Amino acid sequence: MRYVIAVLAFGGIAVSYLALAAHDAPTTVRPIDVVNSHWNSAYVNQSPYSEVHGIPVAMLGVAGYALLVVLALLGRKVLMVYFAGFGLLYTLYLTEIQAHVLGVWCPYSVSSLVLIVIIEFLAMGAFISNPSPEL
Q: Which domain covers residue 14, as residue numbers?
């Protein structure tokens, strides 16, 4: 199970890196904008909500998913549940902003949401099926 989580977290690193590229791209470059006005990665990744204290949210995603890869490979189930849970809560917050503040969706953010939901459920399942005292 931990290898599945690690592979999914590597996918999260890739998606977050693509979002980071959209964040750093000039406004004339539209990396993955769908014709529909409800999907626009450049708009979302260059909005005021795309940074936390000057750090791009996508960079936090790269770091968070990298941490999940390490925790998965080390078999640290409890920490995986906690950190994936934090990532899920923050991703849900960002999803709320896209839905109700920006009114525009980023395909990278939605992909990240799907990945972190799956990772959290797998991490919880791995812990519940075989709880261990390790932190």
A: 2-129
Domain at 28, CATH number: 1.20.1440.130
Tokens of 109: 């953010």
Give the ranges where 1-135 is alpha helix by DSSP (H). Answer: 2-24, 41-45, 57-74, 77-97, 107-129
Note the pLDDT tens digit of each residue in 38-96: 888 888 888 889 899 999 999 999 999 999 999 999 999 999 999 999 999 999 999 99
**134: in domain:** no
3-state DSSP assignment of residue 52: strand
pLDDT at 31 over 70: no
Structural domain count, the chain: 1
Q: Cα-flanking dihedrals φ and ψ of residue 81, to 5°?
A: -60, -45
